[in-house]
Known about the structure:
Elements: E1 13-17, E2 20-25, H1 32-49, H2 59-74, E3 80-85, E4 88-99, E5 103-110, H3 119-134, E6 139-145, H4 149-157, E7 161-170, E8 173-181
Parallel strand pairs: 5-6
Antiparallel strand pairs: 1-2, 2-3, 3-4, 4-5, 6-8, 7-8
Helix pairs in contact: 1-2
Amino acid sequence: MSQEKQKYYFFPLRFQQQDLKIELVLPQITQAEALYQAVVRDRKQLGQWLAWADQMHSANDEAKFIKQIQTKMSQQTMPVLTILVNGEPSGMIDLHKLVPNKKAEIGYWLASKYQGRGIVTKSVTALCQYAFSELNLQYIDLLVAVGNDKSSNVAKRCGFKLMGIEPKLINGYDGQIFRLIRR
Length: 183
């Protein structure tokens, strides 16, 4: 009897945040230009914490990245979603280093014009709920560079607990390891 590979299905996650309509949807090549422009506008801020931001030089680079993650998603190794704000591609959120039925790490970025409005907090909460209920994960880690207070606060608001700090973990910065355990 052959072992059947487990299939993961995803339905867009939708919610209102203040006066904004937020959707977490599967990434599409058609989103590449808008995502790239968001990176260009926020490159300095993003690049401080996320090494990839300095390596994104064109909408074509973003399209190649989306194709890569679509492949990873088809192989069920990395769920990645685009964050749409009122229909505008404005960031991404993902589960990486996924170990089926056990754990993953969560990562995200959001255009600065939408930061500070609770969008990331609600997006992280929604994706964690999905990961626990649909992917049967037992825990999710969120790695945050020491000094990245915005992301540390997201972790705390979402119920993650600080597990420790590891030297030079993120882009040359010491990294805080936050964990959310399934209830």
